[in-house]
Each structure stands twice: as structure tokens, then as C-alpha cells.
Write a structure and sequence with these properties.
By secondary structure, the chain is mainly α. The protein contains 8 helices and 2 strands. The chain has a two-stranded antiparallel ribbon with strand order 1-2.
């Protein structure tokens, strides 16, 4: 059965990707309520162009997204009850594996410290979906994913328009294609309640900072790699229109 408004409210009191860096090496606080003009401050000059706090924030956001959306995609591939659900799961896995590969490259080139775990809130998203079954599983997964993708879309556009760092710009380009692809395949499941999603996407969130912060990696710990899945044969770069245009 569809997820209730009350249950959705408890899950979506904040966007899964609403993160803002405030520390130089690794964020101590990632709450959107702490966003200030300082995010435009240049923290390093690199051969790829200057990197601002907002640029670094974006790299961490994309990495954190993959740390929960990739395993959720695997879950949807296995437990989705329709072919459209399983297809959406494949797109989540392949898309975030590609984004993660670029994030790891950027982290090496630009000195950005990446988390190895999603935030407590993001982990709760996965647990919420995992705790459902059947049609409710499908509805819960689609609603959570559609809301969070809708929330990050404006952030991707803002970074793409403002960054002067070519590597961050490349990540924004890929993220734009991937997020649009994921929104498209989620809507093709027929389970998106647009009225409900729009309310959740625009709700002013209030959550403790610690719920929004991916824990820092342990000193010396290797960077977790999200396994590429070329065997799934999924293209996440250029979704086709829905519905497809008629011939002639």
C-alpha cells in the first residue's frame, strides 16, 4: 500500500543531500542551516582552477549520495515487484558507481576528504525501505528516491553555473545527467505521487546536525569503492523523453 503522509513526514524532514561544509579538511557540520556566503570562499588554487567551499561541499554531497543510493539500488533490483522497479534499481547502481569513480578521482587531485559512510539520516532512508515489503516496498523506495533527487537537482545546476574548477564542473555535468536519468526511471514506475513529492521537496527541514553529517573516515582507512557494474548494460547519461515522441 502507498506510504502515508505521516510516515513520509518523519522520513523527509530534510533532504538527503542537503549538506554544507564548514571545515577545511573534513566537515564538522553539514547542516543546510549553516550555509553562508563563506561557501564562495576560495580554499585552494589548483591546476584545474580555484576550489571553493561550495565546490568541495558538492563533491562530498555526491559521494554521500552514492553511499546510500547504491545499496538501495541493489535492494530494489532484488526486491522490486515490477520490471520497471528492477530497471530503476539498475540505473541507481550504475549511475552512482560512475559518479563515485569521478568523486574519488577528484578527491585525489583536489585534496577533498571523502566519507566512507552515509549520514545517519541517509542510512535511515535505507532502513525505512528495507523495513517494507511488496507493493509498499516499491512505493516507499520510489517516494524517497524521487524526493531526494528532486531536492539535489537545483544544487547541481547552481554548482554547474558558478564553479570555476574544471573537475567540479565535470562532476556537475555527470551529476545532472545522472539525476535526470534517475528521476525519469523512477517516474516510469508509475508510483510517483507528484503532489506529495512537491510538498516534501519544499518543506523547510529541521534536524540535529549530527543526523545530517556523514561520519569522517577512520585515519588510514582505504576509500570505499562502489563497484562498477558494466554487466548491467545501463546508460544513465541521456534519458529519452517520456512518453517517446510518435513516429511521423
Amino acid at each position: 500500500m502507498p506510504l502515508s503522509h505521516k510516515k513520509l513526514g518523519s522520513v523527509f524532514v530534510f533532504g538527503a543531500l542537503g549538506l554544507t561544509l564548514t571545515a577545511l579538511a573534513y566537515p564538522a557540520v553539514l547542516g543546510v542551516e549553516n550555509t553562508t556566503s563563506s561557501t564562495d570562499r576560495i580554499i585552494a588554487n589548483t591546476r584545474y582552477g580555484p576550489i571553493t567551499e561550495a565546490d568541495r561541499d558538492f563533491v562530498v554531497k555526491v559521494r554521500a549520495a552514492g553511499l546510500w543510493e547504491y545499496p538501495l539500488g541493489e535492494m530494489v533490483m532484488e526486491r522490486g515487484t515490477t520490471p520497471a522497479m528492477k530497471e530503476a534499481g539498475k540505473h541507481l547502481v550504475v549511475g552512482h558507481a560512475g559518479l563515485d569513480e569521478l568523486c574519488r578521482k577528484i578527491s585525489t587531485e583536489l585534496g577533498v576528504t571523502l566519507p566512507n559512510q552515509a549520514s545517519p539520516q541517509q542510512q535511515q532512508f535505507v532502513a525505512t525501505v528495507d523495513g517494507s515489503s511488496g507493493r509498499e516496498f516499491d512505493s516507499t523506495a520510489v517516494t524517497i528516491m524521487r524526493v531526494t533527487h528532486g531536492q539535489i537537482f537545483p544544487t547541481v545546476a547552481k554548482i554547474r553555473a558558478s564553479t570555476r574548477n574544471t573537475m567540479v564542473r565535470q562532476l556537475a555535468d555527470l551529476a545532472n545527467d545522472t539525476v535526470l536519468d534517475h528521476i525519469t526511471v523512477l517516474e516510469r514506475t508509475g508510483l510517483v505521487n507528484h503532489e506529495q513529492v512537491n510538498v516534501q521537496q519544499t518543506t523547510d527541514p529541521k534536524m540535529p546536525k549530527e543526523q545530517l553529517t556523514p561520519p569522517p573516515p577512520q585515519p588510514g582507512a582505504p576509500v570505499l569503492v562502489l563497484k562498477p557494474r558494466p554487466d548491467l548494460n545501463i546508460n544513465t547519461a541521456a534519458p529519452s523523453p517520456t512518453p517517446a515522441p510518435s513516429a511521423g
